[in-house]
Automatic annotation (TrEMBL), chains A, B:
It comes from the Bacteria. PROSITE patterns: CN_HYDROLASE (PS50263). Residues 5-278 form the CN hydrolase domain. The keyword Hydrolase applies. The lineage of its organism: Bacteria, Pseudomonadati, Pseudomonadota, Alphaproteobacteria, Hyphomicrobiales. This is N-carbamoyl-D-amino-acid hydrolase. Keywords: Hydrolase. The keyword RNA-binding does not apply. GO terms for molecular function: hydrolase activity. Gene3D superfamilies: Carbon-nitrogen hydrolase (3.60.110.10).
Amino acid sequence: MDRAIVVAAAQMGPIARSATRKDVVLRLLAALRQAHARGAELVVFPELTLTTFFPRWHLTDPAEIDAFFETEMPGPETLPLFEEARRLGVGFYLGYAELAAEEGRTRRFNTSILVDRAGRVVGKYRKVHLPGYDAPQAGRSSQHLEKYYFEPGNLGFPVWRSMGAVMGMCICNDRRWAETYRVMALQGAEMILLGYNTPDDHTGNFDSDSLTGFHHQLSVQAGAYQNSTWVVATAKAGNEEGSRMIGQSMIVAPSGQIVAMATTTDDEVITARCDLDMAALYRRTIFDFARHREPDNYRLIVERKGPVAPPQEP
Amino acid sequence: MDRAIVVAAAQMGPIARSATRKDVVLRLLAALRQAHARGAELVVFPELTLTTFFPRWHLTDPAEIDAFFETEMPGPETLPLFEEARRLGVGFYLGYAELAAEEGRTRRFNTSILVDRAGRVVGKYRKVHLPGYDAPQAGRSSQHLEKYYFEPGNLGFPVWRSMGAVMGMCICNDRRWAETYRVMALQGAEMILLGYNTPDDHTGNFDSDSLTGFHHQLSVQAGAYQNSTWVVATAKAGNEEGSRMIGQSMIVAPSGQIVAMATTTDDEVITARCDLDMAALYRRTIFDFARHREPDNYRLIVERKGPVAPPQEP
């Protein structure tokens, strides 16, 4: 039985602050149709796809903030994407800012959904690893305020059996944390879908910031290889409101090899045929978890959040 | 205060089955002196440095097996290495097969020790992630029988404050498992020392085996970057008794960058000056564990050894 799936990463170029949802959805529809024409059965859109990456600003007006969030999915403006995807028989991953009424209060999450080929929302993930700060930092041209706008995801790292594969999702900074992939791999994840917005001024130190693309590739390739899983990673990219965000959307095989990569920082569709059975070789040899993992030695990973170094030498 | 340390990876070319401990120690002494002459204060030797990589054979004669193991460290044949290192004021990491009398029985481990500049053994590590099999596999030209010869290490992943740094150790296959680095980073590890023997026929599938060097580099670079630590990785390399083992010994910075790399598969010393404070930038930004890790979401990593996939779709 053939267990291959043709996947597309639909990278988006910059989205201006003035862009409407309708403007953005038109671009998503164009990418969706291009991906379908190239045989894709599943399209991965970026993190916070529907607006500019607003965590770069410190906004305080509640109405202004709320305008970046979705209260329903699909809503009237995003429904055309769902309808067209259903019509074409294409599943998709979409990242957006979610405003939820839960536990008697308003909650805000950096969220992605998995939509199957029949247009049904089959999975929701809320970003666990929020980078940056919860208050503005002096001296930065762009802020990084995800901890101000969002609370950490409360859904863990679930997986779903959909479109013939065990699918997992994560978002942006999650990809730098080895735990992200491992928790999904321990649930049998065969393909991890990932959207991101990655500016090239994370630390403010050029020695490090100039490695932004390398660090992106390194983390995703290692996550794929060490967990015998496909990863489809899609950027929102380019110069967006003065912030420069890397592209380098890519599809990575369970071997860690990059099998497709975007070469622009604009709207660009890349595709690959992903053989889900390619992982089997790794899973029965080097990464046969059931034979080789030694969880008794891993306890600090859950028992400790920050590092505790041994005492200084006397 | 300067917190740099000059480190050497002392790669060893093949060691024949007929080589004596004395033969090997002479090669180690030559490498030690070369490293010292190039300013090194710490030298990392390979895994199972003192003999050929015997787990490639299925030996059954106890005396023949025991001949590959050390019952004391230093012993009469290794003492000259300790004495010369002390004389030069150079610390070292040495991997060897350890035969221990513990819990009223004979136990065998794949072990490394950390020796400080005064020649004192300050740390011992026993390999946790044993690859391969506990019985011979049909159809392989080289076996991979670490699970037959050794039991998994029973010392966890400790770290030691020595030579001005928080040092950790691991061995070979440990480097492919993200948990290895993370457990040491959660104890403040600033430098991880690693010896390996990596044949290029791990899986028997050329698609994968031809990526052996890439997988080595990917795993070590990701481990260094994602844990803001230096890694010094040293091979036993070359065509050893018909088995081809990769070289690519390397020193990797907390940025994930390779700052020194061996270009042969023979005896070769590489060095780098490692600024331990380079990690500080990463630890207070992207990898500030205390702010960014979310251990409640990681529980499966310790609760589950092998993967459990969701049920099949109906």
